[in-house]
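Hmm, how's this folded?
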Amino acid sequence: MRKTATLTISLLAAAVLVTGCGSEKDASPAKASETSTSGEAKGSSSGKKGVPHQVVFEVGGTGAAQVMWNGNSNHFEQVTLPWTKTEAMQLEGAELKVGVTVSVVPGSVKGSDGMLKPAPCTITVDGKQVADNQDGKSAKPCEYKLKD
């Protein structure tokens, strides 16, 4: 009984601490704009945005496969092939200087010889193909550094 009470109190204390610890995302807009490592308001120079881009992730083949892609955020799901995902992306702040890596990691598909191989993948940015895995001949994922 004593162990149960101690465990319950510990869990409640941890819950109170976690609930009390917020992030800047949870802060009010006024507080978030005041907080900055350099002391500047966030809206001053870091609010710059780049040109909008259309990023298309494609994985070929037939059947189903696990696919992971990284665009505006990370995703991992079971999909039916062939598969296409289009995202609008616009770089901002520090991303304008360093860029953002977009990628797609295709799952395995059965090759013509019956052996598993990586599904073919491509990435197209603004209508221009920028990455592929040589029709599944390369085990490397398709990735590209998006810059303005």
User: Anything to note?
Assistant: DSSP finds three helices and eight strands in the chain.
